Amino acid sequence: MKEVKLAGQMVPAIGIGTWHMGDDPTKEDQEIQAIRAGLDAGAKVVDTAEMYGDGNSETLVGQALAPYQRSEIYLISKVLPNNASQAQMEAHLDASLQRLQTDYLDLYLYHWRGNIPLAETIAELDRLKQTGKIRAWGVSNFDVPDLEELWQLPTGKNVAANENLYNLETRGIEFNLTDWQAEHELPLIAYSPVGGQHNELHTTMLINPVVQEIAAQHQVSPHEILLAWTIHAGNTIAIPQSSQVKHVAANVKAAEIELTPTELKQLDREYPSPDHRVPLAVN
């Protein structure tokens, strides 16, 4: 199973996303079982955020993780831009920790840039790391200019990851961001790697004949091929989200799929890498 180093820890390259989870009480048991199925299949990374369902996702994750050894989970959450100030961030972190039923996060991400000065947000993230409430901090939805600005800050190089929308059809970050991150040894966390649970991105990837043909050759689903593609470069962790037990377990196992050079070229022909800069995709 492919692994990636995240803040000094080796973790499986496919984790568990939880966006849109925790909002429907009738699905609570099913969603808890889905998260647990992913962990039981070998996942370690669980990604959530205070924004997701206004805390509902974190509450659900806390319930799902209750039977597990905390040290066996790599837990990520995110702070909203409006809450990322020196005055407010710790209180919001404490609220996330309470919902998650834990006393620390492995990684705390600045969800996207807002109006608070970046220097203030990063200084506070680094201070919170010193308290032990977070083991590492990172960013999300940052493009190259954002990372270059971050790199100039006194503690900016302590950043542990950047989380962005990335999949076979949405490859804009390959123009220069993925190379920048590889050069600076900054792991990428890819959200919506198969286009979202309900295909919010209206992608054609899952019904693409070439994707389906490669999936058939490997005797797996198109979802699994898309995940294997997302992590094939070696510096990326994919965090697909699903509420289906069977689906989540299969997603995790996709980290064992090796796509051949021929298959990668076939997929490139269907969804080429960009030859010009495009705006950062955000969902």
UniProtKB/TrEMBL annotation:
Xref: PANTHER family: ALDEHYDE REDUCTASE, OXIDOREDUCTASE, ALDO/KETO REDUCTASE FAMILY PROTEIN
Lineage: Bacteria, Bacillati, Bacillota, Bacilli, Lactobacillales
NADP-dependent oxidoreductase domain residues: 13-269
Tree of life domain: Bacteria
Official protein name in the record: Aldehyde reductase
